[in-house]
Amino acid sequence: YQRRVRDRRRTNATLMAQILPLELIDKCIGSKLWIIMKGDKELVGTLSGFDTFVNMVLEDVTEFERAPDGSLSEIKYDSILLNGNNVAILVPGGEGPQAQ
């Protein structure tokens, strides 16, 4: 019994030390972020803000789209409002697909 209680306390302490997803995104404000969308689009930009739905305001954005033949096209934007519904992966500090 005592061993189970001790193990449960360790588990609770470990959970308290973990960072929540929105906390991690909040720490990325003002930093470069690589965003991989559902589908064939990826974006790299500086995160200006976000909400609880992970809708994001990004500045100095480059959008990458991979064509069926594997080629990569780029489009540049000064700023965008990105709907969080189609975000698959966020990579803090990521450089985008051209760095791979």
Description:
By secondary structure, the chain is α+β, with helices and mostly antiparallel strands. It contains two helices and five strands. It has helices at 2-17, 21-27, and strands at 32-37, 41-50, 56-66, 72-82, 87-92. It has a five-stranded antiparallel beta sheet, with no helix packed on it. β1 and β2 (41-50) form a beta hairpin. The longest helix has 16 residues, at 2-17. The protein is globular, with a radius of gyration of 18 Å. It starts with a helix and ends in an 8-residue tail after the last strand. The mean pLDDT is 86.
Strand order of the largest sheet: 4-3-2-1-5
Largest sheet: 5 strands, antiparallel
Q: pLDDT under 50 segments (min length 5)?
A: none
| Beta-strand residue fraction | 35-45%
Please state the overall shape, judged from the principal axes of the Cα atoms.
Answer: globular
Termini gap: 51 Å
Residue share in helix:
10-25%
Name the average pLDDT.
Answer: 86
Calculate Rg over CA atoms.
Answer: 18 Å
Number of helices: 2
Alpha-beta classification: alpha+beta
Order of helices and strands: HHEEEEE
Structure summary, number of beta strands: 5
Helices and strands in order:
Elements: H1 2-17, H2 21-27, E1 32-37, E2 41-50, E3 56-66, E4 72-82, E5 87-92
Antiparallel strand pairs: 1-2, 1-5, 2-3, 3-4
List keywords for this structure.
single chain, 100 residues, alpha+beta, five-stranded antiparallel beta sheet
